[in-house]
């Protein structure tokens, strides 16, 4: 029996998807619902689709295969550049894949020919974040090579923002992506269907109607799921931010000193813990630990509670100033950040409970 639960409001996820779709559609931008943040749980995928997203996208082939196996036949884009050793599955299960290595694209083309199909690719361009992508000066050469391959079709260009270097999308860097698309058309005679301008962090430009003309796709996960934009450090005011709540049970409640007694060594994870003496405090231990969720990714709903730390199986919180009279057996609720939902959704120790839909 699992000791904690992730409560998921499908109606709020559907609402967020519909709001994002409506705002983007008004500016000619299609929305891919990114499913990797919640391990592509089918009920949540269905809520995204009910909200009107134009397609799905995931970074894990395992998730894409599972979605196909349970009957999802919508276009699915593989968001992590493919492994050379896995091109057969990429062609078989993903409609589109993002790519940056010509060697892999050639392998995809060969595999697609064997399967008597055509695989669509989006060439990723590095405009500054320094994760995946061809450098701008090599784009035309790479596109020219792709154009001579049978078995693949260059669907468009894409870029990634905020995931490694923290670079924010801007009129300048997205404008350069559009200009590269224009150069491909003018110099190579290749018409691109997609200019994919990033993810949730680009929504701030959408709100201000500052997305450069020509960008016609965004890949949205965090915004739809959590109503937040961690790269820009903001809550998105027109979206719900409470579609997910993590609940864990109190298994101990005692008054204890705020500083351990004895010589301090390293904890179970090799770190030397630091403590501040604030006297005796009422502390609760919850049946939740680092094996269940990334502790830095959860935030108590009751702002008067303070997370003190965690071991593999126990979460220790200070409940002295709690707005309610917490007792052993009660549940404590937490909101989640993107890292929190990423880990909680795939934990087999956390049950998933759905509302709405």
UniProtKB/TrEMBL annotation:
Keywords: Isomerase, Pyridoxal phosphate
Cofactor(s) annotated in UniProt: pyridoxal 5'-phosphate
Family matches, as CDD domains: PLPDE_III_AR_like_1
Domain Alanine racemase N-terminal: 8-224
GO molecular function, one term: alanine racemase activity
GO cellular component terms given for this protein: cytosol
Matches recorded under Pfam families: Ala_racemase_N
Protein name (record): Predicted amino acid racemase
